[in-house]
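I am writing to request your help with a piece of structural work I have in hand. I set the record out below, with my sincere thanks for your time.
___
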Amino acid sequence: MQDDPLWRLRHALAGLALALLLSLPIAALIARVVGDRLADSYALRAALYAALLLHVVFGAAVLFVRVAQHETRPLRPARLLLWLASLWLWPLLLAGRGGRPPPNPPPQPPGA
């Protein structure tokens, strides 16, 4: 079981899944508030909700590719809140790196 890649990623998968689940009502609330302030239109609220969900789902994919393989800590409420915030603020995470790929680890000496 320890050799299974999904088992190693269980904390990241659980964090992302729960953060995505929590993002659904958050996106609905944001779409409602912003949509009502701009124009009282169901179509606008629905479009905002769809755009917010697209943003969060794309963020989940980006986070999974960039961060998940390094996540080894068990999922706790504070970690879940970090995953949730990261889902919404993922463009800032990419901007902070300047869009550069992660640095390569130094080569390991033979027999290490």
User: Anything to note?
Assistant: The radius of gyration is 18 Å. The mean pLDDT is 84. Helices lie at 5-8, 10-38, 42-66, 77-96.
